[in-house]
C-alpha cells in the first residue's frame, strides 16, 4: 500500500492517535503502510490483553485488511458463512433463508466470522511490524485537549504516579477513544457545540461463547457449530444471533433484549455481571433447544452489555483533529458493521493524508480531514440508522406490523421482495459491501488538491 513518492515533510508529520481499539490500531497501521513514520498511539489500558466475542467480517472490511497485509492471518482462523436463517424464537420455525455463497463471487471476499481477539491481535501484530514508525504508549490518559488553528495538543497523564504528566503537541490528532470519547467531548466544547446526546436505546446484550466440548453431548447443538450458517432467532423485543468461530471450536452467541439491569445505572456503566436465571427468564418463551443452549453457560460467567449510541454529530473535524469509529458514530449491532465502519474510517484517513501537498500547512491538513468527513459521515450515519431500523423490525410484537413483516419473510422464501432483517438483504449488502471507500477517497482528494502533490495515492485502481 505504501507510496515511495510522499514528500519527507509529509512522511514526518507527527500523528497522535488516542485509543488502541479497532479504529486506532487500523489508523496506525494504515498510516504506516502509507509511508508516515512518526505515529504514536496512546492507550489507557496497561496492555492490549485482547478479549471479546465473535465478530462478523464482511467484504468491505476484508478488502481493507487485505490491502494492509493482515487479512491472510485473520482468515486462517475465520469461518466462511454460506447461509443465514431467520427463525421464530418460540418454535424454531424458519421464517426466512438467504444463501450467502454469492457474496465472494460478487464482492471478491466471502462473508466470514471470527474472534474479535484474532482481528485485533493481527492488527496489533501488523503495527509491531512497523515499529520503526509506530510507538505505543500504554497506561496513559489524554486530557486538556486543545485544537485551534495550529497544532493540536494534550496532556498525557501516565497511570503510573511516578511519571509526571507531560504535554504533547502534534500535527494530526485522531480520537479513536470509543463511545465514551474524551476527544469528542473536548472537540465539541471547543466548537461551542453541545455534547452529543447519549441515546439510551433501552436495550442490552448478553455475549456468550460456548466451546465445542460444552456442546458435544447434545447432537442438535453440535449441528449448529458444525454448520456454515448464522442463525437469528427472533421474538418480541428480543433476538439471539449465533454462529461458529475459531475454526468451529467456539459457538458465539449474542443477544439483544430490553434493558432491565442498567435502567437506573449511571451513564458511565456499560457492563455488568448478570444472573443466569435472569438470562434464562428473558428467553423463557423461546424453544427448548435455546433453553438447553443457554443453560450451558456457567453460573458467574453471564455478562451483560448496555447498548448506547449518541445523536449524530454536526462535524467530526476540528482543525487538524478528527474523530474515528465509535467516537463519532456508535451503532447498534444489528447490521454487524461497527468494527467495519471504524476500519473504513481509518483507511480513508490514510488515503486523504497521504495526498497532502509538500510542506503541508494546518489548513491543508484540515482540508484533507474535511474530505475524510465528506466521504465517511453520511455513509456511516446511514448504516447506524439501518441497524436501528432492522432492530425495530426484528423485535415486533403481535399486531399488523409483525404480520406484514412475516409476509415479507414468506415472500423471501419464494425468492421475492426485501428482507426485513436488513443485514441479509441483497440490496443493502450491495450498498454496504460493494462500496470501496478508499477509491472514493482517492478520487475526492485528487479533485480537491489541484496543485501537484508528491504524495500520490497508492490505492489500487
Automatic annotation (TrEMBL):
Keywords: FAD, Flavoprotein, Monooxygenase, Oxidoreductase
FAD-binding domain mapped to chain residues: 14-187, 315-385
InterPro entries to which the protein is assigned, alphabetical: FAD-bd, FAD-dep_Monooxygenase_BioMet, FAD/NAD-bd_sf
Gene Ontology terms for molecular function: FAD binding; monooxygenase activity
Entry keyword Secreted: no
Gene3D superfamilies: FAD/NAD(P)-binding domain (3.50.50.60)
Pfam families: FAD_binding_3
Keyword Oxidoreductase: yes
Family: Belongs to the paxM FAD-dependent monooxygenase family.
UniProt-recorded name of the protein: FAD-binding domain-containing protein
Amino acid at each position: 500500500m505504501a507510496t515511495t513518492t510522499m514528500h519527507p515533510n509529509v512522511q514526518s508529520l507527527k500523528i497522535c492517535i488516542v485509543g488502541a481499539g479497532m479504529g486506532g490500531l487500523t489508523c496506525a497501521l494504515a498510516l504506516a503502510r502509507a509511508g508516515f513514520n512518526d505515529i504514536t498511539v496512546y492507550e489507557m489500558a496497561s496492555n492490549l490483553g485482547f478479549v471479546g466475542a465473535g465478530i462478523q467480517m464482511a467484504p468491505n472490511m476484508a478488502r481493507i485488511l487485505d490491502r494492509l497485509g493482515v487479512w491472510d492471518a485473520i482468515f486462517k482462523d475465520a469461518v466462511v458463512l454460506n447461509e443465514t436463517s431467520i427463525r421464530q424464537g418460540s418454535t424454531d420455525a424458519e421464517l426466512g433463508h438467504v444463501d450467502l455463497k454469492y457474496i465472494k463471487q460478487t464482492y471478491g471476499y466471502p462473508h466470514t466470522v471470527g474472534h474479535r481477539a484474532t482481528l485485533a491481535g493481527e492488527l496489533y501484530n501488523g503495527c509491531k511490524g512497523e515499529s520503526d514508525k509506530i510507538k505505543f504508549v500504554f497506561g496513559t490518559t489524554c486530557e486538556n485537549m486543545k485544537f485551534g488553528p495550529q497544532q493540536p495538543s494534550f496532556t498525557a497523564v501516565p497511570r503510573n504516579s511516578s511519571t509526571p504528566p507531560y504535554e504533547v503537541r502534534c500535527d494530526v490528532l485522531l480520537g479513536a477513544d470509543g463511545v465514551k470519547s474524551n476527544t469528542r467531548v473536548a472537540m465539541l466544547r471547543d466548537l461551542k457545540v453541545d455534547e452529543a446526546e447519549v441515546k439510551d436505546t433501552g436495550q442490552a446484550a448478553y455475549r456468550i461463547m460456548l466451546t465445542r466440548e460444552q456442546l458435544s453431548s447434545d447432537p442438535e447443538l453440535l449441528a449448529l457449530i458444525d454448520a456454515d450458517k448464522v442463525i437469528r432467532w427472533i421474538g418480541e423485543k428480543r433476538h439471539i444471533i449465533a454462529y461458529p468461530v475459531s475454526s468451529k471450536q467456539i459457538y458465539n452467541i449474542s443477544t439483544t433484549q430490553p434493558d432491565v439491569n442498567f435502567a437506573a445505572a449511571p451513564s458511565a456503566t456499560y457492563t455488568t455481571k448478570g444472573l443466569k436465571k435472569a438470562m434464562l427468564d428473558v428467553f423463557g418463551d423461546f424453544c427448548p433447544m435455546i433453553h438447553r443452549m443457554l443453560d450451558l453457560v456457567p453460573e458467574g460467567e453471564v455478562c451483560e452489555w448496555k447498548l448506547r449510541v449518541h445523536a449524530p454529530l454536526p462535524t467530526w473535524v476540528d482543525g487538524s483533529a478528527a474523530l474515528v469509529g465509535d467516537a463519532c458514530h456508535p451503532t447498534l449491532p444489528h447490521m454487524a458493521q461497527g468494527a467495519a465502519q471504524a476500519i473504513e474510517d481509518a483507511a480513508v484517513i490514510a488515503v486523504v493524508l497521504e495526498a497532502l501537498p509538500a510542506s503541508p500547512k494546518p489548513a491543508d491538513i484540515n482540508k484533507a480531514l474535511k474530505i475524510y468527513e465528506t466521504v465517511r459521515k453520511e455513509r456511516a450515519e446511514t448504516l447506524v440508522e439501518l441497524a436501528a431500523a432492522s432492530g425495530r423490525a426484528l423485535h415486533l410484537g403481535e399486531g399488523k406490523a409483525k404480520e406484514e413483516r412475516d409476509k415479507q419473510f414468506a415472500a423471501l422464501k419464494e425468492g421475492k421482495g426485501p428482507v426485513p432483517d436488513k443485514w441479509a438483504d441483497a440490496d443493502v449488502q450491495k450498498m454496504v459491501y460493494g462500496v470501496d471507500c478508499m477509491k472514493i477517497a482517492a478520487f475526492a482528494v485528487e479533485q480537491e488538491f489541484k496543485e501537484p502533490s508528491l504524495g500520490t495515492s497508492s490505492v489500487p485502481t
